[in-house]
Structure formats: structure tokens, C-alpha cells
Amino acid sequence: MVLIVDDNQENVFSLKTLLNLHKFDVDTANSGEEALKKILKNTYSLIILDVQMPDMDGFEVAEAISGYSKSKDIPIIFLSAVNIHKKFITKGYASGGIDYVTKPFDPDILLLKIKTFYRLAEQTRRLQEMDRELRDEIEFRKRAESRLKDNVAELESILESIPQVAFTTDFDGNVEFVNQNWYQYAATRDEFPQCEAGDMCQYIKSAIRAQHQQVHEVKVKKLGLETFRFYVLYLTPVQQHGIASKWVGILTDIHEQKIAAQLLEKRVQERTTELVRTNQKLEESNYELQQFAFIASHDLQEPLRKIQVFSNLLNEKYTPPSPQAQGYLEKINLSAERLRKLIADVLDYSNIKGETSFSVVDLNGVIERLLTDLEVVIKAKGASITASPLPTLEVIPVQIRQVFQNLISNALKFARKNVPCQIAITAEYIADKAIDAPAVPDGDYCRIAVQDNGIGFSEDYAEKIFEIFQRLNTSERYEGTGIGLAIVKKVIDRHHGLIAARSMESLGTCFIMVFPVRQTTPVEASQQYTI
């Protein structure tokens, strides 16, 4: 199981969804304290840990994890969007992390890393299980020798039966017994298998001095072969009356697992290098986008205001202008106003992610205040707007108001001529996150529909209308920038919801939205707003 630790629920949701799609079992924690509690209760093969968190940051959590005997070997991947300097990356590795990934990241590369470290953790776990099995087997042999005292023959029979190379030594390290597998590596009992580096006899003496079990990774070759293979050498004391009277040595082949781990590590290093280059390009691109937003919000709006001011001065000071001049001035003002709205909508679209705090909101209050603000337009259109009782949902207050304002404004804008505009807002609970899910009294999701009797459109364009700058009607007939529904779609995605449009030309349009009743971020009971 993979544990994701991040206080940002958007990051948790996207990463959990990615891992679930690739058949990973995923658990999540919203803080370092919650993560430590879960680690004590559950078993994880990999931890993906955010650095920037309140109370306990990722480095503190990693150090605490490495202090637990149960979790000290769990691989940790750090994620950070802020702490990307070399000193933080160094600190991440020093805290116990095996990798440090900066945001934004390439999901495919991150997924490869996760798969690699997950596989390595599972291989380590299997080796540990093998180690435990061998420990249990050796412990069994200890008990057998204690019960049978000097019945060495039975112990030798047991060692002869296992598939590994096995041998026993006396208190001083002199070989007493070897099983038949020994002779694949040494010609005689008194001759130790050849190691590429070091001497097996030295390992035995080291264990005798330490007087406790020792485990060594060694490279050994069989007789008649030139290549060395990776093995694990277990040296375990046989206690008799509290004293190590004998030593049991077991040599286990781990060559395939070791080579696979080395290849995976090399690939991870290569991918990491690619990821660093990609992140550098993304940082450059993000900087350019920030510069564009600054120009749009300041440099573009300032000359636009001057165009409007000076055109108004011309209209007022040099009066009465000729009908043709007055028409030109009106076109200048209309074009300037449309450009101002376009800039404002683009900024709204790009800043949707700025507000991230979910709160429990009564949607009835949202609609009530919105209709009050649109009262003049509603009267001018002769529109009738009805709303059934709406639920209380966990949403971002300002953004959910944007959704309803854009949809209602669209319905008013695209009303049919000489036909009274009628808009109906309805809501119901549903069981699943699907547009056509069946209604249930206490579902985890809420479906909200905004229906009008306007000009409608062909459903061939049902997906296209949510793309930025897409318009199905000319700006001469219907004002607007083509960004409103793109903002709606982006806000609903931000709320982990769905939206779809059903329409027929000249018969009206119905926008159907699906929201989770509760987001994954905990909300305090006192944080309830009516806007």
C-alpha cells in the first residue's frame, strides 16, 4: 500500500487517482501527525511525502518515520512545489528520503519512480521475509539442539535438506559440517568458497567477536566458473546455556534480485535527470505566464482606460459631433468595453486556483443574493426564475457564485425574442459521480440542473462550448467573450465535479452539474457561510 501525505487535497486527489488507475492500493493523510499514527497501525511499501505542511513539515515527519523500527525501511519520496533549492533537496535525502521530486512534475515520470521504488520495497520485504524464515529455521535448530543436546546428526540432517549452502563451525570458527551444496563452491570442507572481496573466514571471526547474528552481502563464484554472483551470508550463533557454542552459516543466492535492483536504480537516475531538465523548462514557462498575467492586469488595462476616457472627452467637449463621428466614438467605447471584459475574464480564468479554501455553503443563500444583484437585468428581460430547495455543500464560496452567475447570465443573454424567459434551478442527491446516476435520499453527490427556454444549440457542440474562447454565436448578435462557460468548467473541475449540457435549437438548454456533498478536506463546523 502507498501512503500519500499532503495537506493540499487537490494534490492528494490527483495523485491518488493516478495511482488507483494503475492498480495501487492508496491511503492518505492530511498532516504529519495523522501520517505517523497510520504508520504505527498499517503496513506501507512506499510513502509520498509533501515537504510544505503546517505543524510538522515533511523533513520532520521523515525523521520520525526513520526512528520507528517498524517503518525505518519504508522508502520515502519527497514532493515539493516551494522548497526546490539544493539545500532542501539535500535535507530531504538526509532526512531519510530516497528521492526528491519538485512540482510541477511529469505524472508519467513520477509513476515510473513510484513503480520502481514500490517494486524495490516489495523485493526488500521478500528478502526480509526470507530473513525471518531463516531466523525461524535457525531458532528451530537452536531448540532442536537444546532438546537433543549432543545429537549433532539431526542438526546436520536439517542443514543437508535446505537448498542453500549451509555449514557449521565450533566456538572458535573451525568448520565442523558442510552440506552437499558446499562442494559446488569449495573442493574440500576446510576450504572456504572464494569471495571476490574479503574472506569468509574473516566474516566468521567478526561474528564470533560480536557474539550475535551477522548478515553480509558477498560475491561468490562456483567451482569451474569465472563469474561471481551476489549472495547473502547469514552467520547465526547456536546458544547453549547462554553461550554461543556453535555457529551456523547459510549462503543464499540473491543475484537476480540484486542485478534487477541495480538496473532499476540506473533507470531511476536517468529519469530523474530528464525530470530535472523538464522542470527547468516548466519553470521558464511559468515565469513567462506570470509576466503575461502582470501585463494583462496592469499594462493592458491602463491604455484601455485612457481610450475610454479620451473618447468620452471627445464626445462631451466637441458637441454636437456629426452622426458619423458619434457612431465612430460609440464603436470605440463598445470595443474598449468588450476588450476590458475580455481581459477581466481571462484573468478570472487564470486565477481560479488562487482560492483553495472549501467551506460549507448554503446554496439557497447564494441564489437569493445573486438574483438580487441581477434584478435589473431580470426585469429588463421579463424573466421568471424559480429555484427548488438547494442543499448545503462543501464548496469554494466565491467560485460557486461565479458558476451560477455565469449560467444564469447566459440563460438571460440567449433568451428567445418575444418569448418570456424562464429559468428553473433544481437539485437532488445521487449515489455516484455520474451525470445520469439514480437519485437517492442520502447520496454522497448532488446533481444540480439549470434549465432555460432560450435559443438552445445543436448538441454536436455540447463539448465545444466549454472550451475557452469558443462561441456558437457572433459577438454582433450576443455580447460576451467566450470564456464564461470555460470558467464554469474549470471551477467544477476544481470541485472534483462534472458538468454536461443538454440542448435543442429553439427549445432551450439544460446545464447539469454534479458536486461531491463533502470534499476530502476537513471543514470546521464554524466555517459555514451564506453568500
UniProtKB/TrEMBL annotation:
It comes from Dawidia cretensis. GO terms for molecular function: phosphorelay sensor kinase activity. The modification 4-aspartylphosphate is found at D50. SUPFAM superfamilies: ATPase domain of HSP90 chaperone/DNA topoisomerase II/histidine kinase (SSF55874), CheY-like (SSF52172), Homodimeric domain of signal transducing histidine kinase (SSF47384), PYP-like sensor domain (PAS domain) (SSF55785). This is histidine kinase. It catalyses: ATP + protein L-histidine = ADP + protein N-phospho-L-histidine. Residues 295-519 form the Histidine kinase domain. Its EC number is 2.7.13.3. Gene3D superfamilies: 1.10.287.130, 3.40.50.2300, Histidine kinase-like ATPase, C-terminal domain, PAS domain. Residues 1-118 form the Response regulatory domain. Keywords: Kinase, Phosphoprotein, Transferase. InterPro entries: CheY-like_superfamily (IPR011006), HATPase_C_sf (IPR036890), HATPase_dom (IPR003594), His_kinase_dom (IPR005467), HisK_dim/P_dom (IPR003661), HisK_dim/P_sf (IPR036097), PAS-like_dom_sf (IPR035965), Sensor_kinase/Photoreceptor (IPR052162).
